[in-house]
Amino acid sequence: MEKITEYFGTMVFDDRIMKATLSEKVYKSLKKTIDRGTPLDISIANAVAAAMKDWAVEKGATHYTHWFQPMTGVTAEKHDSFIAPAPDGRVIMEFSGKELIKGEPDASSFPSGGLRATFEARGYTAWDPTSYAFIKDGTLYIPTAFCSYTGEALDKKVPLLRSMEAINKQALRILRLFGNKKVKSVRTSVGCEQEYFLVDRNLWKKRKDLIMTGRTLFGAMSPKGQEMDDHYFGSIKPRVAEYMADLDKELWKLGILAKTKHNEVAPAQHELAPIYDSTNIAADHNQLTMEVMQKVALRHDLVCLLHEKPFLGVNGSGKHNNWSIATDEGENLLSPGETPAENAQFLLFLVAVIKAVDEYQDLLRLSVATAGNDHRLGANEAPPAVISIFLGDELTAVLDTIESDLPYDGVKKEKMQLGVDVLPKFSKDTTDRNRTSPFAFTGNKFEFRMPGSSNSISCANIHLNAAVAEELKQFADELEKADDFNKALHELIRRTVKEHKRIIFNGNGYGDEWLEEAEKRGLLNLKTTADAMPKICDKKNVDMLTAHGIFTEAEIFSRRDIMLENYIKTVNIEATTMIDMSRKELIPAIASFASDTAKAVTAKQAVVEVSCKYEKKLVKELSILIDDMDETTSLLEEAVEKLKTIDETVAASAFVKDDILPLMDKLRSLGDKAETLISEEYYPFPAYDKLLFGV
Fold first, then answer.
1. CA-wise closest residue to 164 among 190, 130, 187
2. Quick check: 247 and 293 in contact, CB under 8 A?
3. Which of these, 367, 321, 357, lies nearest to 536 by C-alpha position?
4. Who contacts 425 (Cβ-Cβ below 8 Å, separation ≥6)?
5. Burial of 643 (C-beta count, 10 Å sphere; 0-12/13-18/19+)
6. Closest Cα partner for 562 from 539, 544, 545, 537?
């Protein structure tokens, strides 16, 4: 049996391969580019390209592609072969540094949010040397950034890299104030848990809604759901276990550190979690993981559903973004140290995050806003749409004592004068986990639980990095001018806690009481994408994002329009699919059952004198349902037509939220009611009990 250590990373042009195939000079120069961002000379690029091509060809690759992440929500690739003509009529395999560094895919059909006209087709991909190239399906994949001919970012990688550089720059300023001169860089790292559903492929083929939209648009709840909690961490079924084993192997070959796998709460729901990595690489790996998950599922006659809410009535799927910040020397800046100075440093970074989350609640909310995630947020193990931070009782008590200058009872009866006292030792398990919190401190990291299962984690981390970078900048600006550093530090932390403690909430985020309390505190409740996305263009957000070079102003407005257009188009496809299913399948099936039942009444009464009260009542109820469904379907058709006349994206998204989605909800409730009344053989789609328990 092949050992994991023997095949792990075999399809990745990683540091081991670079050391083995590059000269010492080329390797050192490339490492400087990767670690410090120094420019890459073309001669070095040519040497790297030649080694990369030779390695890939030896592994069976015939093509290469610049792999990028446009604003479609998925990855994109254009494949070119290595072949070049030889004088004798044969071919040779070539790959230059120029081809490695830059590609030129047609950019006209990718979303740009008005940054370019459709006829302006030129776009560029640029190699990201910080993310390793890999081989998949006979092609060398080169992770790249994607920009327009005029230099605007058309992807998610460029602003993510910019945000990482922004937080690096400002964190270094803070560390220098604490006397740390050795650290050369600070990087955020992420481990993102990926939830998903598995359904039988043959059942999936019979559901137009799952095929077209990734979620069920009709479907009454099965007699058994997740109420017994028996699926969570339960024994993994053989078919699922085989899939998971196959998935692990494919991910390990690609150097993806898949670590944990288990059953999730809902039937047919599961989770995969990787080991932490640099945010940029973690984002690339998660995009690749989602693709591999879906491909491997097909081998097992399964379909992997990554929609945030494929089944109404059971848990949706999220992607918990575990975020931390560390130095190049391995120091986690969100871990309290052993000395007073380290404690003070930890508290400063902690309150920077608290202030960032409070001041930029809207950016964090809109970073996870999609049509699919709107169905998930607010119930069934998903956090509410209101942003808050969970710190746990002990750490909250520490901050309370700092704010009030009262003695802290947890360690000793003294005031917490920063730079003098030693904080209590915090471990990962100091406090219980809060599943209802959108943003929870879990010992040495923050778990941002709001991203949806199909989301790119780049979006959340762009805005989180940028917001924290802004607060660190403000802190550094103030502390660098201070005459007495310790005194200024203490006052800064105390003031920040006092001004931003409204964002801290350790209770149940699902309760209506919290929503009322959050409103009193002045916290935002942006329930839908249509509510959240326009906030990116608020002046405070534009000023902050442009000041740190995360986006240009044009890029910000373009992203608002791109994401709202995605929302509008997604719901429009769902509504159109729903109309199609209602007209062509569901209403005819209900009518057929009602008609056959009515005929049975006539036949029955011709033989014996009986009232047939049940059958007549059923036919009457179904007839009313059919009329209501027909009327609601017609209203939905009219709304879809009206949507086509609304050109402005913000207005169109509001119409989708206020007019189309309520009609879809009403049509679904009517269809689901009918499903509970008609015979199973008449119902045209596989029901929930088969979908959720059919694997």
1. 187
2. yes
3. 367
4. 336
5. middle
6. 537
The domain made up of 4-155 is a member of CATH 3.10.520.10: no
Report the Cα 589 to chain-centroid distance in Å. Answer: 38
pLDDT band at 252 (very low <50, low <70, confident <90, very high): very high
Q: What is the chain's Cα-based Rg?
A: 28
Strand partners, 452: 318
Residue 601 is predicted with a pLDDT of: 86
Three-state DSSP state, 441: strand
Query: Rounded to an integer, what distance in angstroms lies between the CA atom of residue 687 and that of residue 221?
Result: 8
Tokens 């805005």 -> residue: 463
Per-residue pLDDT, averaged over 74-80, amounts to: 90
| pLDDT digits 0-9 by tens, 258-268 | 999 999 999 99
> What fold is seen in the domain 194-219+229-317?
Creatine Kinase; Chain A, domain 2 (3.30.590)
Mean pLDDT across 610-618: 88
Q: Where are the chain's structural domains?
A: 4-155, 173-180+331-550, 194-219+229-317, 566-693
Q: Is 125 within 8 Å of 144 (Cβ atoms)? A: yes
* 3-state SS class at 130: coil
Closest CA to 251 of 4, 3, 2: 4
Fold category of 566-693 in CATH: Four Helix Bundle (Hemerythrin (Met), subunit A) (1.20.120)
Residue 274's pLDDT band (cuts 50, 70, 90): very high
457-479 helix and 539-547 helix, angle to the nearest 10 degrees: 80
3-class secondary-structure state, position 673: helix
> Would you place residue 428 in the very low, low, confident or very high pLDDT band (cuts 50, 70, 90)?
very low
pTM, 2 dp: 0.93
Q: Which helix (H) or strand (E) holds 208?
A: helix 208-213
Give the phi and the psi of residue 535 in degrees, each rounded to 5: -65, -20
Estimate to the nearest angstrom the gap between the alpha carbon of 152 and the chain centroid.
Answer: 23
CA distance 452 to 320: 8
Residues 161, 165: Cα–Cα separation, whole Å: 6
User: Residue 381 — left, alpha, or beta (φ > 0 → left; ψ -120 to 50 → alpha)?
Assistant: left
Q: Which of 167, 161, 459, 500 is nearest to 325 (CA)?
A: 167
Mean pLDDT over the full length of the chain:
90
- Do 4-155 and 566-693 agree at the fold level? no
> Is residue 300 very low, low, confident or very high in pLDDT (cuts 50, 70, 90)?
very high
Measure the CA dihedral 210/212/218/220, to 10°: 10
3-state class of 272 per DSSP?
Answer: strand
Can you list the positions of beta strands (E) in 264-381? 269-274, 277-278, 302-305, 321-327
What is the tens place of the pLDDT at every residue in 125-159? 899 999 999 999 999 999 999 988 777 888 999 99
**Closest CA relative to residue 586, chosen from 29, 506, 594:** 594
Distance CA 669, CA 661 (A): 12
- Identify the pLDDT of residue 635: 98
Average pLDDT of the segment spanning 4-27: 94
- DSSP annotation of 178 reads T
